[in-house]
Amino acid sequence: MPRTTELGKIPAVDLAYALNRLIQEGKTSIAEVRRFAGERPARIAALERELATLKTGHVGAKRVGRPAGTRAAGATKKPKRKFTMTAKARAARRRQGQYLATLRRLKPAERTRVKTLARKEGVAKAIAFAGKLAKAVPAKAA
Predict the structure, then answer these.
(1) 114 within domain boundaries
(2) Is it the case that residue 29 has pLDDT exceeding 90?
(3) Domain contains 64
């Protein structure tokens, strides 16, 4: 992109011609030109505020917009809580895994019997019952 000093040397008529050619060739659109033209006053105002800040010093400046938060200058993220599982929860998960593993080896009819037993008398008894049923069924030959 050419420097603004270089553009300042080009007559306004030539700049208007170049802009029209860019629009005709599809390199830019009228909407983009209007958007950039509309941004100009806001950009000038922002530069004036920045200049005023530099003149008066940082302390006396009034910041417009969102104030700098904790993430402004590479602030560190809050560390995640370390997950600790109780012995009771670990045992429950182990039982659940054993239960699912024993169900997988059973036929659908036996599986429903084990599920009803688990609901009525608990998972531990259902695992033992499923183990007995699985031993009664011969394993498939590989």
Answers:
(1) yes
(2) no
(3) no
Give the Cα separation of 115 and 122 in Å (integer): 9
Q: Give the chain's domain count.
A: 2
Residue 4 lies inside a defined structural domain of this protein = no
**Model confidence at 142, in pLDDT bands (50, 70, 90)?**
very low
- Report the predicted TM-score, pTM, of the whole model to 2 decimal places: 0.40
